[in-house]
Amino acid sequence: MNLFIEQTLNGLQLGFTLLMVSAGLTLIFGIMNIINLAHGSLFMVGAFVAADVGGRTGNYLLALLAGIAGAAVAGLIVELGLIRRLYHRDHLYQVLATFALVLIANQAVQMIWGLTPRSVSAPAFLDRTVPVLPGLPYPAYRLAIIATGIAVIVFLHLLVERTRVGMWIRAGRTHRELVGAFGVNVRLLYTLVFAVGAGLAGLAGVVAAPFLSVESGIGDHFLILSFVVIVVGGIGSLKGALYGSLMLGLADTWARTYLPDLFGQFVDPSTAATAGASVASASIYLVMVVVLVVKPNGLFGLADE
Amino acid sequence: MGGTTNLRRTRSWWLWRAVAIVATFGILAAACGDDDTDDAAPAETAEAAPEAAPEPEPAAEPEAAPEPEPVEEPEAAPEPAEETEPEPAAEPEEPAVVGGQVKVGMITTLSTGAAYLGEGIRDAFILAFELDGRYELDLIVEDDGRDPAFAQQLADRMLTRDEVDVMTGIVFSNVAGAVVPQVVNAGTIYISPNAAPSPFAGAQCHENYFVASWQNDNQAEAMGVYVADQGYESVVALAPNYQAGHDLVAGFKRFFGEVDEEIYTELGATDYAQAIAQIREANPEAVYFFYPGGMGIAFVQQYIASGLEIPIFGPMSSFDEVIVDAIGDVSLGLFNSSFWAPDMDNEANRVFVEAYREKYGTTPTAYAAQGYDAALLLISALDANGGSASDTAGMREALKAADFDSVRGKFRFNTNNHPIQDWYLLEVIRDPVHGDLTNTIVATILEDHEDAYASDCSLTG
Amino acid sequence: MSDPQTAPASRERTGIRLGLWARGPSRWHIALTVVFLALLSVAPLWVEASGRGYLVTVLTRVVIFGLAAMSLDFVMGYGGMVSLGHATFLGAGAYTAGALTYHSLDGSRLLGIPGTDQALVTWPLATVVGALLGLVIGGLSLRTKGVYFIMATLAFNQMIYFLFNALEIYGGDDGVGLFAASRAIGPLDASDDIVFFYVCFAVLVVFTVILNLVVRAPFGRVVRGCRSNMARMAALGYQTYRYRLAAFALSAAITSLAGAMAVTESQFLSPSFAEWTESGELLIMVIVGGLGSLIGGVIGAGALFLLEELSIDITDNWQFFVGIGLLAIVLGAPRGLTGTLLGGRRSHD
Predict the structure, then answer these.
(1) Above 0.90 for ipTM, yes or no?
(2) Domain count, chain C
């Protein structure tokens, strides 16, 4: 039972990290209809900047802020310099241009920070365990990630549902032309949303960094996982991103925990351990296939998007 | 919609188009140009290495782990080969060279969390040739990124295009599994400075394949003996899910007995929360783990953060100087098993450790020691063949003799070209002179230890 | 069956406007195709004669990956389906041929069938497997459209990639060497690199002809029609979903064949064939060569492999420059090398 609770917490932590990446991505998709493969690179930029600043100052909070700001600035540059030219282009060219960005970013961080991976240490005040249950200590830092994820989703919910900007975002999702007609500066709105999404990706990069070796290409994996989240949850839907992220986080963690045991019923333990670990990697994609079969537009996707 | 886009694009469109055309045709033209001058391809020599750093590599890494950073640049940015570049022709003027030239292809890991493993091997390999001073080392270094399929292409290129005399360098057993058969079957000698997967020690052994480090299982076997001797009965074993991971669990079990649970994680994984939860659930008396490079740092840090207090043991690969330095003082007093330690008491080792510290500013890891020994082994074979590596049969014979002063003291080859050597218990201490964390030998675990596969190998002594 | 594509199609953006043969292939394109293939056919002799024989294997890879890129161009440039998951099929072909070869070396059986390294068996089988997998993945992915389609193909790609990783028998994520395999193609022993090049080249020529015929056939017209205006094609009574699925499966089959050829060439089977970046690289080949020109895929493969071959001595960061060049092409010369060669003044419709 303790194992189940601990693994569920691990799954939630993974899920909420994923949420920070995919929430920004889904908003960008939803409002701008732009496919951005470089979103994972913004995650990477956040982690690298945090590792650099954290390494220089030893201050986690400073590293956190720098990571978010670094990713947001990188996002701004990308939006102003490139994405803006792609709004009216076919998705193919968005894919290509942002894939080019991925190649450039992965090499650029190597050129700037070298091949040796960096690390980010968790802040001292969270570097301890909290007894979740008697006999089950759990790292405080991982609980803090879950809390951060909840804060992010609440913030985004309020932003989209309760503010004027959110109103434009909601309107822009369905009636793109109308928003412009109301005199809203659509370009500025796009840039803003893009920067917020980039900052969130950077935030995810920083909070996940203590469990990562910060190296070139770390964002790619999260990028693809976010795509799966969005396919499962539905484009443009925050609710979809939330449910999708948590489903995938839990599916992945549980599969990794219990599949080897399950396989162990049929084959010898060594084989079961290796095969189970490998098949567990594919588990989240099985979730995606099921959703695609049942609801091609995702769980909460707009029917006509 | 397309119409408006086109209108907007017309302004800079011709400019962009011109750039793209020039770029693409430039690429093609340059590619052809390169073909024509291939024989003048940049040859990187050990002597030329320090000043050959034309790329704007900032290398401003104040907080980087104590890797020998500066020397990374030559490999990261080899000299661009302009057609008029006089560089390659200028090499023979090196005064110290009297012994001849050897062209070595080194495929190693210079990226990922295990980058410092390959750096240590490369740097020490170069250092050995520098200290020796008699041979001109034409060293071609490539990073394999820990990717077997990519490394296999690199090897193909080194064999067919660069026509290297000898190959070496591979860190990871899965990369070795992809590359070594191709190399040795092509009639080229391969000297392993690290990875030595079990298949190549047994039925798939080869007369062109020599291991200057250890057979994978050996590291773990020594630890299996020690953990059993300490009276632990229930153990959980963890390793990455690849050839060496399987070898290092098998080796442990060979001398310890059955373990409670084997946990295999993804190679290169950095989040060990799930594995740690499984350890907590199994609640063993001891934990044995094999996590080289960045994986080791991540695992131990998270293990400590999880509040688990079950004692941990592992081979040298899980406790090298970079890992224990990253973990910090909590690693003091932890035990591991190795064939070597920086403070090993023999003349060859004193020379090596001092020169390495002098040149690279850090205590060498065991990987560096292995790279150094691989180079010494190669030099000894060159000596026996009049300074030329062209006679493969002669090289084989001389390598097999292993007539060199290893930094580990005694070294000789078994019938399967894998070393027979002593294995020690190491403890993590703070270096009394330099102040960094390091390993010291506290006991001998196994003497003149062979690997378990030599009898399956058809080679004879 | 109801067609999920029809209703929203009109809301979709106006497809890919830059397909070169949107109005049917011109004489110039056929001339370019012939000239390029002719050049390619003598290239190995030339490099061999000039003492750079090691480039023959590079040329073989150009042919093989060019074939894959060409089949991707077929669904993308003509069918308007942007697949970021074609490495799936490359991997499927590689694993079909590789697994059979592995079992023939091993003497073991695969699902009761003895293995073989005879390319006349492994290659067609890989093609069939690719077609079936294309039907399944295409069938699911084509239920979505636009960005969803791109993401779904990418996600399937990743799923298949992890499944290959799980195949411990073939070395898991490490892959397995098949160096002892013969390169038997019928009675022909193609272990010589030049001979093998010409075998692959012949396959490329055959499929170049086939695909060129297909895009001009009625079937190809419908597929092209779906790209520019799916609602209209549906209104005309076409089952657009079925046409698009058939096109996707055809492309998957050819890509899978290329994967089988690639594993016979490298004699090394590993999941890296199915890595998502491989999908991206196929996409780059198509765009560099010129979308909607078929031969462009091969030209793009040639440009990319040559760039790699050239820059490997100069910089480890060659992908950085690929990225920059790709940006320049996307922003400045979206019609790629072929389009730029043939572009003339008829720039953007």
Answers:
(1) no
(2) 1
